[in-house]
Amino acid sequence: MPERRTRIWSAMGRAIFPELRRNVYGGKLEPVQVFERSELPIQEDAKSALELLSTGFEVSWFRVAAPRIWTAIVKPLESTRDHFGLRQECFVIGHAFPKDFHERTLLQGPPADVEFRVDPQVRLVVSKAPLAEASCAAWAARHKMSIVLLTPDKRPSNESQEEYLYRLLSIAFWRRDLFAESEPVRLRSEFFGRETAVNEVLSHIVSGSPVAVFGLRKIGKSSLLARVIDLLEADESSLTATTVLLGNSARIRGGRWWVAATDVLSGLQQKLLRFATSINSPKAAGTNYLVNWTWPPPR
In angstroms, rounded to a whole number, what is the distance separating the alpha carbons of residues 253 and 247? Predict the structure, then answer.
């Protein structure tokens, strides 16, 4: 029985890895050989996922990373490459634990000597753990990348493997919300448009008049103000202190508005200290006079 199962796995492995050639990554074993020599649980875990991937990719590298964890590098077939614009190979992480999924699993990466071949903005993750989808979504938002979660056992019976794979890739690459950012945009290269609004806010600040920014949730108010702050901080012709106050913070609630005043004065002090340091002023080594500042003042 074991010999028969080995022959079945061998045949299945050679079907998934169509080109048995010398490993272009410098390894001594071909991907199919690594797969065949891996433990049976790893083969069982990876079998359905690799069969699904083989409808749109060619497996060019396969390794066992840890118990129930395997990794692979897949090269898109011509049809997949042209359809989704995938110009590089993709890294695959196989996670076979049925219940637990930790984000540290996503720290797996390709070998350093072949990293240049792999698209750093795309990851394929195979897992059926309940928390895999939420963890992958959080990781993708935090690292600004696309993660395709593959669950071969959830393929509908009326859908072919190729159709199912294309649907999952389409959801990850085309139907994702590009504006669903978990944090405000801070990089200049990621901030587009709204120059008129930015200049209007800046003109009010420079002239000393108050200004407020109103808008719906997730419309980009924090990103706009972050851009304004960056421009003010970069201006060396004037001394401007910026402080971010969260109005819904527990520190502000209950009428403790002296906390806001402390934040403003602390921000001004830090800007003055940075300015003094930049001109080599001896005052830069002074004492932080606001450390013990409180309001109302003690009687």
Answer: 8
**pLDDT tens sequence across 83-117:** 988 889 999 999 888 888 887 888 888 888 888 88
Considering the entire predicted model, what is its pTM? 0.55
Q: Enter the tokens of residue 144.
A: 């600004």
* Cβ-based neighbour number of residue 62 at 10 Å: 29
CB atoms within 10 A of CB 129: 17
Percentage of residues in the chain having pLDDT higher than 90: 15
Q: Which of 156-165, 212-221, 263-272, 275-284 has the lowest mean pLDDT?
A: 275-284
Whether residue 287 is predicted with pLDDT greater than 60 in this model: the reply is: no
Q: Which residues of 87-110 are buried (b: 16+ CB within 10 A; e: fewer)?
A: eebbbbbbbbbeeebeeebbebeb
Inter-CA distances, 184 with 92, 179, 180, 212, 272, Å: 29, 10, 10, 18, 26
Q: How far apart are CA 259 and CA 89, in angstroms?
A: 52
Provide the residue count of the chain: 299
> Which residue type occupies 252?
I
Tell me the backbone φ, ψ of residue 63, rounded to 5 degrees.
Answer: -145, 150
